[in-house]
Amino acid sequence: MAELTEAFRSALGLIVGLDPDLLEIVSLSLRVSLVALVPSMLLGIPLGATVAIARFPGRGFAVVLLNLGMALPPVVIGLLVYLLLSRSGPLGDLSLLFTPGALVVGQTVLVTPLVAALSRQVFEDHWTEYEETLRSLGARGARAVATLIFEARHSLLTVLLAGFGRAITEVGVAIIVGGNINHLTRIMTTAIALETSRGDLPLALGLGVILLALSLGVNVLALAAQQAVRRAEA
Amino acid sequence: MRAVAALILALPFIACSPSAEAPETLIMASTTSTRDSGLLDDLLPRFEAETGIAVRVVAVGTGRAIDLARRGDADVLFVHHRPSELEFVAEGFGLERLPVMYNDFVLVGPREDPAGVRELGDVAAALANVAANEVPFFSRGDDSGTHKAELRLWAAASVEPSAGASGWYRETGAGMGATLNTANQTPGYALTDRGTWIAFRNRSGLDLLVEGDPLLRNEYGVVVVNPERHPHVKAAAGKRLADWLTSDAGRAAIAAYRVGGEALFFPIER
Prior knowledge:
The structure holds two protein chains of two kinds. Chain A is mainly alpha-helical. Chain A has ten helices and no strands. Chain A is globular and about 65 Å long. The relative contact order of chain A is 0.16. By secondary structure, chain B is α/β, with parallel strands linked by helices. In chain B, strands 1, 2, 3, 4, 5, 6, 7, 8, 9 and 12 form a ten-stranded mixed β-sheet that branches. Classes of the chains: A mainly alpha, B alpha/beta.
């Protein structure tokens, strides 16, 4: 238990001292995960909406596939993205491997299925509620999807936060495609893995405390924004 | 729709490109021991100050480092398993192997030393004792340089360890630090390079038990990846790094590196 106290002390020391390395790592973590959220939402939400609304043969199978996507092991995704981005792989000429860009690609591949699966559920619930109205208004296809996304925006915030949570806390993808390079691709989780392997457990745990605080901050901000919007709408 | 697709494709490049891109950068595939001991953090800034070349280190086990270099994902290889390095060069993936430095492996284990290996000084005899007493031994089991060296030592001890669920020989499949964490907790014996051991912080129940046997020598070499195999490789800059590591300046920096007053690595005479 003495280790826990020391972990909090080292976390506090890092924060109070505004350790420049820590600031760099925190800022890269936030940047990568927030940026990765953009394509994940742009791809995942329409995909989820489509599967929720469209009726096509094999739709049940598509739903199962989407849900399976949530359980994709990060290490496997990391390995697949590594093989894609490797110099000997199909996308090697992009020179993305071991750069922050590779982290964004990896986290996007990781988070998009999660966003698609969760938003599918959200849309399906809304669809049962709005289907008749939308049909009577003659809204179909892309138009219906757009209306549905707008109506579901509050629930989608939770999807966004879940996606952010998965992105910022994962380590398997980041360590394989980013390489945990100091000052370039070292993020919170890979730094924690590194300090653990160096045997500096209090520092590793301290970084973990900071990561948790960071996620808490993002969640609080998102909820505050949601309530502000609701109040403005009311 | 097309704008969205373009945005998605461009995001990885624009949003996260480092603002101050160094003029020239190298990717070096190296081992966890050189990073975890702090050596590279000490050496590479000196090299960058002299040459303006920034070196980015991807620290993995020797086996995986060689695989990275084989695929062209690194410009320079700095690892510690001479036979694999020479094979890498012989296969045409590397230019030439230059010996850089050495340190040694040490056998660490529980302070109470249930296998009675302290004072033996003979690592083969010590390992034979560990096996005979069936005290837990933690192997890296990850095809790293240390793992390869450990297998060589078991062969010298005429023991064929096999990892079984309940057996005393256990493979962690993890890096040196993680393996030491496990050995410290269980407790059990482990083979580690001296550098990682000295820099390792979480060793409350472990002691250094066997050292100094010539079999325990651990040699590091540097290889520049062959640009004929991978044309994008920055061979010229890589050559400067390899030359610097084996130059008087590089050798002096290696010899001067200390953790807790102890030298961790010794440059190899040319």
